[in-house]
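Each field is set out as follows.
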Amino acid sequence: MGAYKYLQELSRKKQSDVLRFLLRVRCWEYRQLHVIHRATHPTRPDKARRLGYKAKQGFVIYRVRVRRGGRKRPVKKGIVYGKPTNQGVNQLKYSRALKATAEERVGRRCGNLRVLNSYWINQDSIYKYYEVILIDPSHKAIRRNARFNWIVAPVHKHRESRGLTSVGKRSRGLGKGHRFRQNPRSATWKRHNTLSLRRYR
């Protein structure tokens, strides 16, 4: 096995003494830093490389923390003026993942860069920490490289805000197979098992 494979296996065993100590120390360090800051190198190089990162000019890593928990409805005094079905305030969940929020915040901070992908690095009781891989579309090393210059096209501006990154696509329900049917399985079952005796048939 190569070195990256060993790193991958190590990061899978999160309850091991080594990783528990590492995550605890790193978490303390991240709490002292700014919410969004640039990292000199990826914390998980094996994961970053699998998601498209290369240690080349034009590639940037940003670290970001996002507050954990659901999304409270932003209404004054908890009053929702509308139908009773929409009256919930507290136990609501945001339809997109926290990782998507992290990518969006970094993308807004670094407007001249393009978000490629992101990955989890740590979490505590209050925050989740992610590292976001960004590419500089104006860098000559990127523009001349046939493998990466697809992201230079203007259509990829702020792809993280439009649900075009990996985690963004996940929340949009795109995909093939039985998990991605547009009609619910229960509704199909009910339709097939209900006897309909209409008056004029």
